[in-house]
Structures are given as structure tokens and as C-alpha cells.
Amino acid sequence: MSEHTDKITGRVKQALGALKGDRDLKREGEHQEHKGEVKGHIDDAVDKAQDAADDVKDKIESAVDKA
Predict the structure, then answer these.
(1) Both ends of the chain: CA-CA distance in Å?
(2) For range 26-49, the mean pLDDT
(3) Within a 10 A sphere around the Cβ of 29, how many other Cβ atoms?
(4) pLDDT number for residue 57
(5) Helices marked H in 1-67 — which ranges?
(6) Residue 63 reports pLDDT greater than 90
(7) How far is CA 6 from the centre of its chain?
(8) DSSP symbol at 22
(9) Which positions ≥6 away from 34 have C-beta within 8 Å?
(10) What is the 8-class DSSP label of residue 58?
(11) Of 37, 49, 62, 65, whose CB has the highest number of CB atoms within 10 Å?
């Protein structure tokens, strides 16, 4: 599942668990929501790493072109 899908599904499970008095379902929802948050952080880190790699590549290509 995607980041947003995990967050939404987790919130729904938490609400259902609270309504039904099902602690396990509520806890499962909390875990799934956190999983979505972690996925978001990982995606952000990957994007930043890719941007940094692109910047380095551009600088190297610029230096080679000048030489």
C-alpha cells in the first residue's frame, strides 16, 4: 500500500476499533498509520538523496565541459 493508503486505512481501523471496543483492531490501525508515516519519511529521504546526486552529476558535467 502507499503512504496515504496506509495512513487512511489505519485511521479507519482505529475508529472502528474504538467504536466496537476492539483494542486489537485499534492497535492494528495505529501500527498501520505509523507504517504510512515511515513510508513518507523514506520517500522524502530518497527524493533528497536523488536531488543531491543530480546536483553532483550536474556539477561534474559542468566541470568536464569547461575543461
Answers:
(1) 48
(2) 97
(3) 21
(4) 95
(5) 3-20, 23-66
(6) no
(7) 10
(8) -
(9) 10
(10) H
(11) 37
- Enumerate the domain spans of the chain: 3-66
- At residue 65 the predicted structure's pLDDT band, cuts being 50, 70 and 90, is confident
* Residue-level pLDDT at 7: 96
Cell of 18: 474504538
Question: What is the C-alpha to C-alpha distance for residues 38 and 19, in angstroms, rounded to an integer?
Answer: 26
- Amino acid 34 reads H
pLDDT of residue 1: 78
Q: How many residues does the chain have?
A: 67
| Distance separating alpha carbons of residues 66 and 36, to the nearest angstrom | 45
Contact 17, 25 (CB under 8 A): yes
Alpha-carbon span 10 to 62, nearest angstrom: 47
Alpha-carbon gap, residue 32 to 49, rounded angstroms: 26
Q: How far apart are CA 11 and CA 63, in angstroms?
A: 50
